[in-house]
Amino acid sequence: MLKPIADWFDARTGYRASLAAALDEEVLGGARFAYVFGSVLTFLLVLQMTTGVFLAMYYSPSATDAWASVAFLNDQVSAGWFIRGLHSHGASAMVIVSGLHLFQVALFGAYKKPRELNWIVGVLMLGLLLAFALTGYLLPWDQTGYWATQVATGIAGTAPLAGQQVQEAMQAGNGYGNLTITRFFALHVFVLPAIMIGLTALHIALFRKHHQTPPWWLDEKELRRRTQPFWPDQMFKDIVAMAVVFAALIIVNFQTHGAPLDAPADPSTAFDARPEWYFRPLFQGLKYFHGILEVIVALGAPVVVGGALLALPFVDRGPSNNPKKRLPYLAVLAVGFAVAVGLTMVSYLEDRGSEEFQEAHAVAEASSEKARALAKKYGVPPQGGAAVFTLEPGYLGKKIFEHDCAGCHAGKVGDRKGPEIIAGFNSRLYISALLRNPSANRFFGPTKMDVMKPVTVQGEEFEALVELVYAQTGAEDADVALAAKGQEYFDEGSCSDCHSIDWETEEDVGPNLGRRGDPQMLREFIVNPGHLRWYGEKNEMPSSKGKYSDAELDELIGYLVGLRTAQK
Fold it and tell me: What stretches of 403-518 show up as alpha helix (H) in DSSP?
């Protein structure tokens, strides 16, 4: 039934003759897995384009919407994380397979006459892959992509003569913004793919003209005896290799749950970004140079490596493909590869051994998780990805605290003027430490007050007193029975000589502990800390009366109350 349709198409296109010419091609010396890399790269290129189309259906190339669109795709679209992960890991796979292909071609001497042009095209395609990586890295508009790409364009800007013009052309202006991301998107999705498709077509056409380079260890007679057709012998090996690579991509994708996505790009922050692994050699190498030497190496290293690869066919002009007769040239490639691997390993080891970097990395991961959780729950504000943090409950209160209160209550030990207010404030542990050592630097040590003596009771009595004070905060998990025992110890012991715990009593030696840390007490205390119920004339904290609206006070108090259960 299908034959008439096939005949109709063949009469008009001649596809059967073209297909036969492609499949019946002879593989001199026989099919080999050493020849699969070109087909695998073609498969990966098609995979990248296919997944790229799916990603583009959801992506919005603007500084306000880019991160939001990627977060939505990654966390809310069915299998979105999987498609994005395939695209990201597929880029790494292309670099790896390209490197293997380059070494296979070099080992077989396939860059020699008359195949020089095909080698040159292949080297240009490798450079184009890195350009894809550079332009794609920025598109999520997250912290890592934003800052790492700024480093790259900054290096370009140090080039002599036209460096500044190149940098401005790359970032579409004097700085990063909306036009930068649209320019990188245009390059990544339109310009570079068009060039890559053209070079791929030329690469394949040149390969079909000159065919594969046969093994050097077989003579002409043996090569002819072992010759096999491309189909099915070589094609079968190509398909097996494609399947193995695709299976590996899927496994890695599931293990990593797709590609990472950092918190939204925030130009106002400092972020210690790291490039993708294939740029790590240059990243690490630049650490060993300073001043003008750093600029020279940053610009010169890619030129030297690329120039050496392009020059190889014209330098090694001997007639033999035998690697033993080309050892100096292959040794240069091997040494270059070893240096790149070594620098990459050192870079990762240094990061692993750096406590500062690990802490910063942990903070970045926590920030990423928070941003994505907020985006998933509330969406992203029109102001852009970085504004997603404003949706966090208590955000305004935290900002007010950081702006007006942190200088006295959350700074370093020499800068604070009052008790420390950080995560865990008014928790059982905090109250216990306060009672044991009220004059500690984290409590009333920085003040000028006459601080009470440490509470010296032990065991159940001390635990009950802590629970009594803790219960004043209104915490739902307070042990009522234990707090009641604490009230008995409080009344019978020396605590009641200086403190009341009834909210109404004023002018005690020490502050009234009634409702200590609950929302009503915090509101009145912030407005009037010098009230006789608390510190009276001993007070050193300025009043905030009239400074905040009721809504702002509610936010600040909500933040302070939330610190009780916050993780340090």
Answer: 406-409, 428-436, 459-471, 480-492, 495-498
